[in-house]
Design brief:
- Helices cover 79% and strands 0% of the residues.
- The chain contains six helices and no strands.
- The protein is mainly alpha-helical and 186 residues long.
- The protein has helices spanning 7-27, 31-54, 60-83, 89-113, 122-143, 149-179.
- The protein is globular.
Length: 186
Protein backbone atom coordinates (compact mmCIF):
# COMPACT_ATOMS: atom_id res chain seq x y z
CA UNK A 1 0.00 0.00 0.00
CA UNK A 2 1.38 3.48 -0.81
CA UNK A 3 2.79 5.46 2.14
CA UNK A 4 0.29 8.29 1.58
CA UNK A 5 -2.61 5.96 2.36
CA UNK A 6 -2.84 6.47 6.11
CA UNK A 7 -5.30 7.57 8.78
CA UNK A 8 -4.34 11.28 8.62
CA UNK A 9 -4.99 11.47 4.88
CA UNK A 10 -8.19 9.46 5.30
CA UNK A 11 -9.53 12.20 7.58
CA UNK A 12 -8.56 14.79 4.96
CA UNK A 13 -10.48 12.82 2.33
CA UNK A 14 -13.48 12.56 4.68
CA UNK A 15 -13.41 16.36 5.03
CA UNK A 16 -13.30 16.71 1.25
CA UNK A 17 -16.26 14.33 0.95
CA UNK A 18 -18.24 16.53 3.40
CA UNK A 19 -18.10 19.53 1.03
CA UNK A 20 -21.08 18.67 -1.21
CA UNK A 21 -23.18 17.78 1.83
CA UNK A 22 -22.37 21.11 3.49
CA UNK A 23 -23.17 22.99 0.29
CA UNK A 24 -26.45 21.13 -0.14
CA UNK A 25 -27.50 21.82 3.45
CA UNK A 26 -26.62 25.52 3.20
CA UNK A 27 -28.44 25.97 -0.11
CA UNK A 28 -31.50 24.13 1.25
CA UNK A 29 -31.28 26.37 4.31
CA UNK A 30 -30.99 23.38 6.61
CA UNK A 31 -28.92 25.54 8.92
CA UNK A 32 -28.50 23.18 11.86
CA UNK A 33 -27.41 20.35 9.57
CA UNK A 34 -25.05 22.65 7.65
CA UNK A 35 -23.43 23.86 10.86
CA UNK A 36 -23.00 20.28 12.11
CA UNK A 37 -21.34 19.22 8.84
CA UNK A 38 -18.98 22.21 8.83
CA UNK A 39 -18.07 21.62 12.47
CA UNK A 40 -17.45 17.94 11.70
CA UNK A 41 -15.19 19.05 8.86
CA UNK A 42 -13.30 21.25 11.33
CA UNK A 43 -12.87 18.33 13.69
CA UNK A 44 -11.42 16.17 10.89
CA UNK A 45 -8.94 18.98 10.17
CA UNK A 46 -7.79 18.96 13.78
CA UNK A 47 -7.55 15.17 13.81
CA UNK A 48 -5.60 14.87 10.55
CA UNK A 49 -3.15 17.57 11.65
CA UNK A 50 -2.62 15.92 15.01
CA UNK A 51 -2.09 12.50 13.44
CA UNK A 52 0.35 13.90 10.90
CA UNK A 53 2.45 15.85 13.42
CA UNK A 54 2.25 13.83 16.60
CA UNK A 55 2.25 10.32 15.15
CA UNK A 56 4.47 10.85 12.12
CA UNK A 57 1.74 10.30 9.53
CA UNK A 58 2.69 13.35 7.50
CA UNK A 59 3.22 12.70 3.79
CA UNK A 60 4.00 14.87 0.78
CA UNK A 61 0.54 14.02 -0.59
CA UNK A 62 -1.04 15.13 2.68
CA UNK A 63 1.03 18.34 2.70
CA UNK A 64 -0.65 19.33 -0.59
CA UNK A 65 -4.04 17.69 -0.07
CA UNK A 66 -4.79 19.18 3.37
CA UNK A 67 -4.52 22.90 2.49
CA UNK A 68 -6.27 22.34 -0.86
CA UNK A 69 -9.13 20.58 0.94
CA UNK A 70 -9.31 23.40 3.49
CA UNK A 71 -9.51 26.01 0.71
CA UNK A 72 -12.15 24.03 -1.21
CA UNK A 73 -14.22 23.63 1.95
CA UNK A 74 -14.04 27.28 3.00
CA UNK A 75 -14.64 28.52 -0.56
CA UNK A 76 -17.67 26.28 -0.98
CA UNK A 77 -19.13 27.48 2.32
CA UNK A 78 -18.64 31.15 1.40
CA UNK A 79 -20.09 30.73 -2.10
CA UNK A 80 -23.09 28.90 -0.64
CA UNK A 81 -23.64 31.51 2.07
CA UNK A 82 -23.46 34.27 -0.56
CA UNK A 83 -25.92 32.36 -2.76
CA UNK A 84 -28.51 32.50 0.03
CA UNK A 85 -27.59 36.14 0.81
CA UNK A 86 -26.06 35.49 4.24
CA UNK A 87 -22.66 37.01 3.40
CA UNK A 88 -22.07 39.89 1.00
CA UNK A 89 -21.04 38.87 -2.49
CA UNK A 90 -18.36 41.58 -2.53
CA UNK A 91 -16.66 39.82 0.40
CA UNK A 92 -16.62 36.50 -1.45
CA UNK A 93 -15.22 38.24 -4.54
CA UNK A 94 -12.47 39.84 -2.45
CA UNK A 95 -11.53 36.53 -0.82
CA UNK A 96 -11.38 34.83 -4.22
CA UNK A 97 -9.42 37.71 -5.75
CA UNK A 98 -6.78 37.41 -3.03
CA UNK A 99 -6.61 33.63 -3.42
CA UNK A 100 -6.34 33.98 -7.21
CA UNK A 101 -3.52 36.51 -6.80
CA UNK A 102 -1.67 34.12 -4.51
CA UNK A 103 -2.20 31.10 -6.79
CA UNK A 104 -1.19 33.02 -9.91
CA UNK A 105 1.91 34.37 -8.19
CA UNK A 106 2.89 30.91 -6.97
CA UNK A 107 2.34 29.48 -10.44
CA UNK A 108 4.53 32.17 -11.97
CA UNK A 109 7.21 31.55 -9.33
CA UNK A 110 7.17 27.83 -10.04
CA UNK A 111 7.41 28.29 -13.80
CA UNK A 112 9.78 31.24 -14.01
CA UNK A 113 11.92 30.93 -10.91
CA UNK A 114 11.61 27.22 -10.06
CA UNK A 115 10.57 28.08 -6.51
CA UNK A 116 8.52 25.30 -4.94
CA UNK A 117 8.12 26.32 -1.30
CA UNK A 118 5.53 28.88 -0.30
CA UNK A 119 5.25 29.01 3.46
CA UNK A 120 2.13 30.70 4.81
CA UNK A 121 2.54 34.07 6.49
CA UNK A 122 1.21 34.95 9.91
CA UNK A 123 -1.15 37.41 8.16
CA UNK A 124 -2.41 34.72 5.79
CA UNK A 125 -3.09 32.41 8.73
CA UNK A 126 -4.82 35.20 10.65
CA UNK A 127 -6.94 36.04 7.60
CA UNK A 128 -7.97 32.41 7.16
CA UNK A 129 -8.78 32.12 10.87
CA UNK A 130 -10.97 35.24 10.73
CA UNK A 131 -12.70 33.97 7.55
CA UNK A 132 -13.48 30.67 9.28
CA UNK A 133 -14.70 32.44 12.42
CA UNK A 134 -16.94 34.71 10.35
CA UNK A 135 -18.44 31.81 8.40
CA UNK A 136 -19.11 29.89 11.63
CA UNK A 137 -20.72 32.91 13.29
CA UNK A 138 -22.93 33.41 10.22
CA UNK A 139 -23.90 29.74 10.32
CA UNK A 140 -24.61 29.87 14.06
CA UNK A 141 -26.81 32.92 13.42
CA UNK A 142 -28.62 30.98 10.70
CA UNK A 143 -29.15 27.94 12.93
CA UNK A 144 -30.09 29.95 16.04
CA UNK A 145 -31.62 33.26 14.87
CA UNK A 146 -32.29 34.45 18.43
CA UNK A 147 -28.67 33.97 19.51
CA UNK A 148 -27.41 37.38 18.44
CA UNK A 149 -24.76 35.76 16.27
CA UNK A 150 -26.15 37.49 13.17
CA UNK A 151 -25.18 40.88 14.60
CA UNK A 152 -21.68 39.59 15.33
CA UNK A 153 -21.42 38.17 11.83
CA UNK A 154 -22.27 41.51 10.24
CA UNK A 155 -19.66 43.16 12.49
CA UNK A 156 -17.02 40.70 11.22
CA UNK A 157 -17.48 41.39 7.49
CA UNK A 158 -15.30 44.52 7.40
CA UNK A 159 -12.47 43.14 9.59
CA UNK A 160 -12.43 40.02 7.40
CA UNK A 161 -12.25 42.22 4.30
CA UNK A 162 -9.46 44.38 5.75
CA UNK A 163 -7.33 41.45 6.93
CA UNK A 164 -7.90 39.56 3.67
CA UNK A 165 -6.71 42.59 1.66
CA UNK A 166 -3.73 43.18 3.94
CA UNK A 167 -2.64 39.54 3.79
CA UNK A 168 -2.90 39.60 -0.01
CA UNK A 169 -0.71 42.71 -0.16
CA UNK A 170 1.72 41.11 2.29
CA UNK A 171 2.01 37.95 0.17
CA UNK A 172 2.63 40.08 -2.91
CA UNK A 173 5.29 42.09 -1.07
CA UNK A 174 7.02 38.90 0.11
CA UNK A 175 6.99 37.51 -3.40
CA UNK A 176 8.40 40.68 -4.95
CA UNK A 177 11.05 40.83 -2.28
CA UNK A 178 12.04 37.25 -3.01
CA UNK A 179 12.29 38.00 -6.72
CA UNK A 180 14.32 41.08 -5.90
CA UNK A 181 16.98 38.93 -4.28
CA UNK A 182 15.81 38.28 -0.73
CA UNK A 183 16.74 34.70 0.09
CA UNK A 184 14.21 34.11 2.83
CA UNK A 185 10.54 34.97 2.96
CA UNK A 186 9.57 36.72 6.16
Amino acid sequence: MPRWVNLANLFTLIRLACVPFAVYAILREQHGRALAIVLAGGVTDIIDGTLARRFGMGTSVGAYLDPITDKIFLSAVYISLAAISRVPRWLVIEIFARDFLILASCGAAILALHIHKFPPSVWGKASTFLQILCALVVMIGNAAPDSGASRWAAALFWPVAALTAFSGIHYLWRGLRRIDGGAVWE
